[in-house]
Amino acid sequence: MKQHTHKRLYDTHSWVGIISGILLFIVTFSGIPALFEHELGYWQYPAFGEIAEDRSFDLERTIATANDIGFQYDKLTIQLPDEINNHIMLSHFSDESEFYTLYLKTGSYEEVESSPSALGQILTHLHTDLYLPRPFGRYLVGLAGMAMLLAIIAGIFIHVKWRKEFVMLRPKRSWRLLLTDQHKLLGLWSLPFTLILAFTGTILGLLGIISPILALAAFDGDVQKATDTILGPRAEITGEPAPIYSLNELWIKARSDLADKEIKLIEIEGAGDKGGLIKFSAHHQKHLSNIETVTYSTATGETIHEGSFIGKGPFHRIFAAVTPLHYVLFGSVWLKICYALAALGACGLIVTGNMLWLERRGHGMEHLLSKLTLGICGGLVVATCALFPVSQLLYVFKLGEEHHHFEEWILWSTWGITLFTPFLWKNGFQLSHWMLRISAALLLSTLLVDGLVNSRWFWLTSGWNFYIQAGIIFFALLLVYLDIKMPDEKKEKITNRKTATQATHI
Amino acid sequence: MFTKIIRSTGSRNIAAIVGSFLATVALTIAITLLWPFGDLVEQVLAGGTFFFIFWASIFYWATLAQDGLQAWTRVLILLVPAVTIDIINLAS
């Protein structure tokens, strides 16, 4: 590669990273809990842990029970119980973007009180929309993904000695070399995962922007028509009443039509109207696809649309795989753990990248980027770790609906306060140590609070509660390890030849 | 003066960010219209996938130009034929 090309790619890699780094950290770090949203949902509310012995599903009984309770909406989504979610979840999105949910116990169809905690959802919302109004937050996340993709592409080309860099860490040399080695190590080891996450995340984030472009080319600019053709039609309410076809028969028919696939969602719109539809959505069990659908008329029971992305062209396969690849809707929990570790690696990659940029330009802690990196990135880690024990502690006060508002308040206030600490505390190394210690202590206190409030002591838990608690301990220990390993001050470059040969190859 | 501005680093960066996006949009529409394989949905999804490939490729093609003028030339080499194809196809 020509020196000019290498330098240009290197500069682009640096600037793309610097401009988007902090935003990328927020998206990537919040993506870790978002990856475990369902598991966290199970853990955050102890009542969700009760497992019914009878897990059979009766669609008509579900609808009838919901109607009796007063959960009657023209448009309903039913999420079926699975390995993690024990209950049947009915939900409705109103036109005013309000979200209503009803939980029913499998088997007995008794109402289960909705979770007052929204820990998983809060962090997921931060990951997908940055808590900004739709769709702008989503677009910003998509653009951050595109920046990550561009930085990765340049990073691949500029690291020509990748075989050596794969295993090189020189902790006894200068601070700058340590940052360089860590940046390269983290980047190379997490590369396959970060590449997948960046590409799929960009598609998911920017789908709203590219849809009108694609619709202009193939559907005269009609985005709704394009969406209906790809994902199946929406109900057209005629106002003409019609008897509802047996929903249980349609459920049996759907299971036959979607053989080899696991039905996850049922969407009912306009039942009782001539134009009413019911759509069953499934995940393919052998291929990467979560958009296998079949749609029937609720009036006649006839099949309106069958959508399968398997057995079609290569681009069907690519788009079908986007969500499963991004949210790990395949493989075992170990694969999710690999994704989470890679995301953690990417967080380290972003922070070391920013610090390296500052170091190479001779800036210290007094630089604004340095303060913002520590305040925003470190602050998010502290705030997220504070959210876990507080979420459980709030059950003591029986706040009901207010529970999740307090959780949001804790996240934002902790983050806000920590964000300003680098502007007051001049020693960045010392502050980083304290942030790591406080975060680890908060995580470990979660286990204590969980034990005291919910009697879920670590040694007594099993299943997903155990895995979540083990994950919390692992992350706390990782933070303690980083606290031990991180230097207390910047080491100056050692030029002594003898010392220079002491590079440690791991 | 104009030549100086066009040749500047800032101009090259704008070509890489804005120019590459515009060329990507035009090329995506063109490839969606002309994609010869599969059904209409496959055509649309092909366009959707190529969008990101085009964007990244054109961004770096413009970035690696010697100066702003060359970056804009590279963007226009793609943009003009793509827009022409789009207009001809969409008008017919």
TrEMBL record, chain B:
It comes from the Bacteria. Keywords: Membrane, Transmembrane, Transmembrane helix. The chain crosses the membrane at residues 14-38, 44-64, 71-91. This is Uncharacterized protein. It comes from Oleispira antarctica RB-8. The lineage of its organism: Bacteria, Pseudomonadati, Pseudomonadota, Gammaproteobacteria, Oceanospirillales.
